[in-house]
Amino acid sequence: MTAEKVLALKGLSKTFGPVVANSDVNLDLHRGEVLALLGENGAGKTTLMNMLFGHYMPDAGSVEVADQGGHFRPLQLGHPQAAIAAGIGMVHQHFTLAENLNALDNIMLGAERLSRLRRDRRAAHAKVQKIMLSSGLSAPLDVPVGRLTVGERQRVEILKALYRDVDILVLDEPTAVLTPQEADTLFENIGAMTRDGLSVIFISHKLREVLAFSHRIAVLRHGVKVGEIASKDADERMIARMMVGADTPEPDRPVLAPGAPVLRLEKVSVPGRSRRDSLLRVDLTVHRHEILGIAGISGNGQGALAGVISGMVRPTGGRVFIGDAKIANHHPSTMIDAGVGRIPEDRHRDGIVGAMSVAENMVIERLGDPEVQSRGLLRREAIQSHAEALSTGHDVRGPGTQAPARLLSGGNIQKLILARVFERQPRLILANQPTRGLDMGAAAEVARRLLAARSRGAGVLLISEDLDEILSLSDRILVIHDGELTEADTRDREALGLLMAGEDA
Amino acid sequence: MIRVEPRTAPSRLMKIGVPILSAVIALALAAIPLVFAGAAIGPAYVEMFKGVFGSKFAFSEMLTRATPLIFTGLAAALAFRARLWNIGAEGQLYLGAMAAVAIGTGAVEAPAVILLPLIILFGCMAGAAGMAVPAVLKTRFGADEVVTTLLLNFIILIFLQYMLEGPLKDPMGLGWPQSSPILDQGMLPPLMERMRVHSGLIIALVCAGVAQFMLARSVWGFKLRAVGENAFAARHAGIRVNRTLLSAALVSGALAGMAGVSEVAGLKGYLTSDLSPGFGYTGIVVAMLAGLSPAGVVAAAVFIASVFVGADSMSRAMGVSSYLADLVVSTSLLCVLIGGFFARFRFVRVKVRQRAAS
Fold first, then answer.
1. How far is it, in rounded angstroms, from Cα B245 to Cα B241?
2. A311 touches chain B (CB under 8 A)
3. B174 touches chain A (CB under 8 A)
4. What whole-number distance in Å separates Cα of residue B87 and Cα of residue B146?
5. Residue A244: Cβ within 10 Å count
6. pLDDT in tens, B47-63
7. Residues A161-203: pLDDT tens digits?
8. Is CATH 3.40.50.300 correct for A5-244?
9. What is the CATH number of domain A261-500?
10. What ipTM, to 2 d.p.?
11. Which residue in B229, B235, B356 is closest to A356 by CB distance?
């Protein structure tokens, strides 16, 4: 690798109110290099890249970019146009494509003047073709983006950046939505592009891909760069320790014989707008002392499956049993009464009423309970002392139990929901993406609670896009794809990846 | 550089201070057209103040005007707390008034202890029924209640005109479209000798107190708040969202119906098609000024009633148009809406440390 520097971040700092997102971060990037930016959620990775790209104005520090002649020039901060002009491109985690336009329009949009969109299509088409050829990225250009797969959309996003002749490409968690195979292809493409002189920074928290595909790794923790290491000298344990500041213990999963079924689905169907958000005659059984993992790429029917079990969705066909009892009246209250504890995927939307107090959110599922109300009136002292006890027991931290729940951090909101769920000793737990967006400590706590419930005799249905999480917690694994479930009798990532992509292993 | 960022939680002082400040600013802004109308600002506001607090009679007039506004304000506030946009309090008010007249003008012969509760009961039920229709349309078919409640107002108004020309018409009314007078024992007793303020005010205050208590302390209020703040999470937690919305609709409609009962059986004695000068719509302003708090509704209703009554008296004394009252009411609403923004967000001056110039 040539040692020619193309980018230097110098002492970047940024605070949001009392929160220090970045503090005095220095980072260099060389031509043709793939730099992985690693850190837990909230470590400040995205903030740092947003400052580089001009979305955020740093409180202190500067950025220097090499121009064509190799001379370093300071970048005007706080202006995305300046970053684009300096040859910096960014692909966000959440795509910024117009779904009703085709890929070519999306690529040209913003790069060309609007009046030229119609006239210069042929030239643009040729240019995109050339980029696709040299990078290996391919996507249909004439189909509305809304009809493309997630992987194709991401390639369009990258092509959009490359079309603007970038020298430096920033990818924010590019593999979060991809199958393992798609991810591997993406990194092969990135490899091809860097050989042509492109420099890449990618944000990730997947240790495996970081080790396999980057040249150098920079680790952020609490907004501070805590380490930088050549990838060939690093191993997973060592980076994990840098990220968390301590060793993470593997969850301890004792061998337990599964007991009687606690959840049975028989040919359950849910109609959706497409195969991706529907369920097709699904069979499934969860037993006592068992964690059943549902692996799959987001948007393959997980929402419909979780909806049925949480009571939010009424299936159009099939039968649902909790224990031995058939569920006749599909409503969340039926499921709560049947002893189902539900950890929703979108905790802000479905998990809490943000404007109501922490204490109120802790009793919201048991308003009929005589401990909570008598003759229709709330027992405020009881609710209050209950909230204090529960907060202490589950280490829910924040501005107090009387404060609105929305003031809690994401991890503490999840703790509130866990407290509410586990307090009732549910016989079945639906955990839908329970660790998404949580830092390692909070995620380990969720895993510990789920395993404890399993030991106690509960059954757990774990839906997750994180294959590592599924592999480390599940007794059995099912793969969901296009609304159908397949029993996976393998623990091999490659084989699971193929099943997730809908191909026969 | 100045940045706007959300406040963590609006303080108590903010919640009370913003509406009061908005009212003051609205009154100050109203001085501008006053000047154009050729009136001296100082004396004009003195007249306005005297028109409300200058005499026992003036004060009674203000409370008389505040009474229906408390009812319609509560109707709007409770519905809005559940995110149910009841714009139909005007129509529900007339339904309540029609029911009161239907029962109270001789159809039922009974002493006051029986007749009065009966009138109130039927008036409330009529108002509730008027709001039940849009609520069912919303929960069953997803029809937007803003449209249905608003349009129902006009349907009910035409129905009222039919009733006043037909079944409810006073045979002794010399052909005027008005109902027969309510029997003496069906009237809400006055509160003061020779004054118009009547016991509807007491009922309104009790309703406000009960609403405040129920919203904060009852399971019903808990569900209503949860549904209003986040219907997804409420449903996920097992709360029957539609049932809660329906119950909020019934209570809201009943309160609006009670406004009609109070006006016809407390003040006018008989029903005409101009019983309400838009109390139903003004109730929305009252509720917004009150920050959707039932206790706040009482204060906001008193403020708006004061502006109306005071402006009447000012216009008589200074020879300016009494429409000024509408102006003050609408500017105060605008000020509250803008003030609400300041209560939720704050402006932060961000110092940008200058980096090396290029």
1. 6
2. yes
3. no
4. 6
5. 17
6. 889 999 999 999 999 99
7. 888 888 999 998 888 777 778 888 888 888 888 888 899 999 8
8. yes
9. 3.40.50.300
10. 0.86
11. B229
